[in-house]
Amino acid sequence: MIKVCIVGCGKIADAHAGAISLIPNCEIVGVCDNEELIAKQLFERYKIKQYFSDIHKMLELTKPDVVHITTPPQSHFEIGRICLNAGCHAYIEKPFTINSSEAAQLIHLANQKNLKMTVGTDEQFTHMAISMRKLIRDGYLGGPPVHMEDYYGYDLGDEQYAKAFLGNKTHWLWSLPGQLLQNIISHGVAKIAEYLAGDDVKVIAHGFTSDFLKRMGEHHLIDELRVIINDTDKVTAYLTFSTQIGLHDREFRIYGPKNGLIINQDHHSIIKVPGKNYKSYLNAFIPLNFSAKQYRQNMSTNAKLFLKRDFHMKSGLKQLTELFYKSISDAYPLPISYKEILLTTKIMDSIFSQIHAEC
Questions:
Q1: What is the reported pTM?
Q2: What is the DSSP pairing of strand 51-52 with strand 26-32?
Q3: In this structure, are 244 and 273 located in the same domain?
Q4: Which stretches of 57-179 are assigned E, i.e. beta strand?
């Protein structure tokens, strides 16, 4: 039996508690939040054994195997350090830490203590992301990846909603080095980092404030981002974050020497893109029919998952959590390598330093 605690009982903690409850042979033995009432409400709704407002007391009394850290990112490093020093493995929500220096220190401490950590970039573990990873492993791309593109559309809502967000300057997002971007783009950066060959990458980033925000008097929050990334093996990637493009989808594309793959996070779809060309007019019919057939297959798969009650927005969180627990109990490999975690934080450091230099 794996004993689990959760630190930070806000909105994302609900998703964690729900995912953990679906995994056999584990139990949430305690939850903790600085605001005791917030911890109590999670404790009551998920029938957890105990709740706390002091992390040290929780760790001492419950002695968990794993702690899920679902607090604002500014506290991840310190809480992660406390948990590791208490002998606990740690699942840290994204972004892992606020910079790569903190990430490297935590990973070094985990290795010293012979403990394990992971980060909550759960979009890498949805049904279609797992299918994509298997296709790549089986050679569908025809070789190592050559190029990737990640698009993340983010809906700020109407002006009334946006003004409410912009007016709350006490929210923890505002004090992050990357502000709004840092809490979101780690998903996209992590997807790219997984398939980069080396640790040494070049990053070119351009960020700016949209006219939509400027019309409301906000001239400092960056809500548009364009990034070019390449590694020492000349694998390239584009990352786009936008609040203003009308299509608010999240899509990842990866191309190899022969074929490509496209996953759409919002449509729950994976599409094969064969590199084969057909003669004459056939090129205007056969590829389209192949794509149409795949979309129908994706729709059928989604319907089956829905009927099995395995079709929900945070399905990747459950899969990632279960794989992390197996790495602890059954010596499985970590679901996300420390190399990927460090590379993700390094790329994000570079992005934020460049866009701040532009301002």
A1: 0.93
A2: parallel
A3: yes
A4: 66-69, 89-92, 117-119, 147-153
